[in-house]
Design brief:
By secondary structure, this protein is an alpha/beta fold. The chain has a domain of 163 residues: Rossmann fold (3-Layer(aba) Sandwich), CATH 3.40.50.300. The protein is built from 10 helices and 12 strands. Strands 6-7-8-3-9-10-12-11 form an 8-stranded mixed β-sheet, sandwiched between helices. Strand 11 and strand 12 form a beta hairpin. Helix 3 packs parallel to helix 5 and helix 5 packs parallel to helix 6. The mean pLDDT is 90.
Length: 331
């Protein structure tokens, strides 16, 4: 059994600097990711959820160093990705891959499926010729596509099929870790379940670990082993999937989980919805203290001045709140 996590993210920050004013002489600092920490074990799925603009996708891309971190560390198999040179990082790319959000924009329309799926293998010089063709056929069968389609172009496939092509491309080099950046958000509901089930089946067969980024909490609960809740660039709660839904400790998580439908009409009628007031602040001008306090129903004076540090409130259950576990009354 692996003693250390496959992935460790420590106080990761990614700030963007946007020129403003006349001739761009001034800049605005946008704190897209602001001190994120978590770990991920081999063969595990960590779900990352939160509102649009909270920094989920930026976190995924920064973890893979598609964006250069402003500060912090990312350790993959005990190697610090943030500091290793480019040549060594390129070799590591065979073990870390990404499935992007939009299957319509992420595939080159001029390339055949064979060229798309085999691209990582060709770039890293792993296969060629007949061996490469056989690998592409194997990958297409693995994701439920007919190998005879390998000479077709992306426009000849549906959205769900294109997403399967992207998954095949990501898995072509047998990675240990894949960032799934909202892989189902652009798909029909009926297709979403197929893609999620495919990812789960592949995880069972290949032992790959996922960072699964999504909006749909019920789908995240279905696929994830643990869930991290993100708000304005920070992780505010992290726990097992059942703990997050059955015992949310952070008021923001309580609000999110109260919006997830329950199959039982009787329980649904009894349940209390928690509706937050206002809009999330801008990451270019985050509030002082706790970033959630302007919308928090239980905020006190301390929340306006002191930043709550994420801490283990219960075994395996972390929250960043001065009053973690306090229930919210409907107002």
């Amino acid at each position: 059994m692996r003693a250390q996590p496959l992935l460790r993210v420590n106080d990761l920050k990614k700030h963007f600097y946007i020129p403003t004013g006349l001739f761009g002489q001034e800049t605005i600092e946008v704190k897209a990711v602001d001190g994120v920490s978590f770990d991920l074990n081999a063969g595990e799925t960590l779900g990352l959820v939160g509102e649009s603009g909270c920094g989920k996708s930026t976190t995924g891309r920064t973890v893979l160093k598609l964006y250069r971190p402003t500060s912090g560390n990312v350790f993959f198999d005990e190697k610090d990705i943030t500091s290793i040179p480019g040549e060594e990082l390129n070799k590591l790319r065979t073990r870390i891959q990404m499935v992007f959000q939009d299957p319509y924009a992420s595939l080159n329309p001029r390339h055949t499926v064979k060229t798309i799926v085999s691209e990582p293998l060709v770039i890293h010089g792993l296969m060629k010729g007949a061996e490469l063709d056989e690998r592409v056929k194997e990958l297409m069968e693995l994701v439920g596509l007919n190998p005879s389609y390998m000479k077709r172009f992306p426009h000849e496939f549906s959205g769900g099929q294109r997403q399967r092509i992207m998954i095949a491309r990501a898995l072509s080099v047998n990675p240990d870790f894949v960032v799934c950046d909202e892989p189902i958000s652009a798909l029909d509901v009926s297709i979403q379940a197929q893609v999620v089930n495919l990812l789960q089946n592949l995880q069972e067969r290949l032992g790959v670990a996922y960072l699964f980024i999504a909006h749909d909490l019920s789908m995240v609960k279905h696929i994830s082993h643990r869930i991290a809740v993100m708000y304005l660039g920070k992780i505010v709660e992290l726990a097992g999937r059942h703990e997050i839904f059955d015992n949310p400790l952070h008021p923001y998580t309580q609000s999110l989980t109260s919006a997830v439908p329950i199959p039982s009409p009787k329980m649904e009628r009894k349940r209390q919805r928690i509706i937050l007031k206002g809009e999330p602040p801008s990451p270019a001008n985050p509030p002082k203290g706790c970033v959630f306090h302007p919308r928090c129903p239980i905020a006190r004076d301390i929340c306006k001045t002191e930043v709550p540090q994420i801490a283990e409130v219960q075994p395996g259950h972390f929250a960043a709140c001065h009053f973690a576990g306090t229930p919210i009354q409907d107002t």
